[in-house]
Amino acid sequence: MKEILMSSLYKVEVDGKNVFAEIKKTSGNKIVSTLIRLYYETGKVKSQVIFDNKEELYWLSSRSGKVIYKSPELSDNFSIFMVNSSDYSFKQIIKGSSKTIDDAILIDDYIVVSYLDELDSFVMVYDIKGQLLDKIDLPGVGRFTLTPLDGKQFEFEWYSPKLPPTKYIYDFNSKKEVKYTHISTKKFGNYKPYDYRHKILKYQSKGKEYSMLLVYNSKTDMSKPNNIYITAYGGFGKPTELAFSIFRSYLTDQGVVLAYPIISGAMDSTYSQYLSSVGINRKLASDNFNDSIKYLIDNGYTEKGKVISIGYSNGGLLVANAAIDEPEYYKAVISKVGPQDLISYQNGTFGRLWTREYADPTVEETSLRF
After folding, report:
1. Is 264 exposed, middle or buried (0-12, 13-18, 19+ CB in 10 A)?
2. Which residues contact residue 90 at a Cβ distance below 8 angstroms, ignoring those fewer than 6 apart?
3. Domain 193-338: which CATH class?
4. Residue 365 has pLDDT above 80, yes or no
5. Cβ burial, residue 181 (10 Å; 0-12/13-18/19+)
6. What is the DSSP letter of 174?
7. pLDDT over 80 (residue 195)
8. What DSSP assignment string belongs to 95-132?
9. What is the mean pLDDT of residues 187-207?
């Protein structure tokens, strides 16, 4: 087995008197990180290696000389690790749970963590030592983004396929009080949020059970086969996208049902959900995708030839592969900026860090499998 070893300057962030530089490299099926601190002392630029060749680290946030990462090192789901500005040690401060960590931010002496539980999500607030202070439940099925604000506040924007984004401001001084402002829906025309419904289904694929979200207009007759718009990403551990879209809202007004299946390659529940579809097992993601459509056909939600699918980037590769395998399912498929060249992708830009995702095409075993 030929080993591929490549490296790339992945992230540089200036934080006060420190410059943190992260270098990532691939070795076989592993991605390892090295974190270097650069600082100015006695008229010279000096460097300190904080950690070297650590596997599966994901940079989240830095502030006031601290850096936090998520890593599945000690559990199937992520734990939070922090570089402490007092001695620049690297320690676990928040243990992994049964829910997966999506993102986290540092605000003064607080750590705000967003968790995913398949189609649901929630926010946890911790102190700098990892002690839980508060939990913020969100209004329903959806996703959100975190943004630190000046002072002891942070903002998060919650969104779902059937509701325009809603912004919330959390004030640490008022503890559990959440102040929120709704983004005006005037720009969405005659959009009425309460015209829409959603349903969560369970489908089987390759011996495992997965969830799938349907979104539809309340006037749509769900007792007969309908046209389906289905999308997924299925790679790089990116959670299933559940964003609001004017275009998709228009489709539902025309009687189209939106479908968002959870599939392998994403990371909505566990880290193993992601790892199950990397490298030479990549096809599992498109198999899951087609099995979710088969479930909709078998249970009368749609018929063959009534499915439209659009995928972006890795999702573009996903829907293209799925349509090649089961062309009779689809009425139309749009693959946007998908990495279709899996023979030489590793020779360009960040492609050198994608060999775990798509496997190394220069290795004989990979070539034979593909």
Report:
1. buried
2. 35, 50, 51, 54, 81, 82, 83
3. alpha beta
4. no
5. exposed
6. G
7. yes
8. ---SSEEEEEEEETTEEEEEEEETTEEEEEEEETTS-E
9. 81
State which amino acid sits at residue 262: I
Q: Tell me which residue has tokens 């009080």.
A: 177
Sign of CA dihedral 183, 261, 340, 325: negative
**Residue type at position 33:** S
Closest CA to 204 of 258, 259, 261, 246: 261
Burial class from Cβ neighbours inside 10 Å (0-12, 13-18, 19+) for residue 106 reads buried
pLDDT of residue 6: 44
69-78, 86-95, 177-186, 206-215: range with highest mean pLDDT: 206-215
In this structure, are residues 252 and 196 in contact, taking their beta carbons and an 8 Å threshold? yes
Which amino acid, residue 218? Answer: S
- Strands 228-230 and 257-261 turn out to be parallel
Sequence-distant (≥ 6) Cβ neighbours of residue 139 within 8 angstroms: 158, 163, 166
| pLDDT in the model for residue 1 | 30
At 261-318, the pLDDT tens digits run 999 998 887 888 888 888 888 899 999 999 999 999 999 999 999 999 999 999 999 9
CA distance 308 to 323: 10
Element (H, E) at 337: none
Domain edges within the chain: 86-182, 193-338
Q: What is the pLDDT of residue 66?
A: 84
pLDDT band at 204 (very low <50, low <70, confident <90, very high): very high
Task: Encode pLDDT of 68-92 as tens digits.
Answer: 998 886 556 788 999 887 788 888 9
The pairing of beta strand 44-55 with beta strand 30-41: antiparallel
DSSP code at position 188: G
How far is 71 from 50, CA to CA, in rounded Å?
Answer: 16
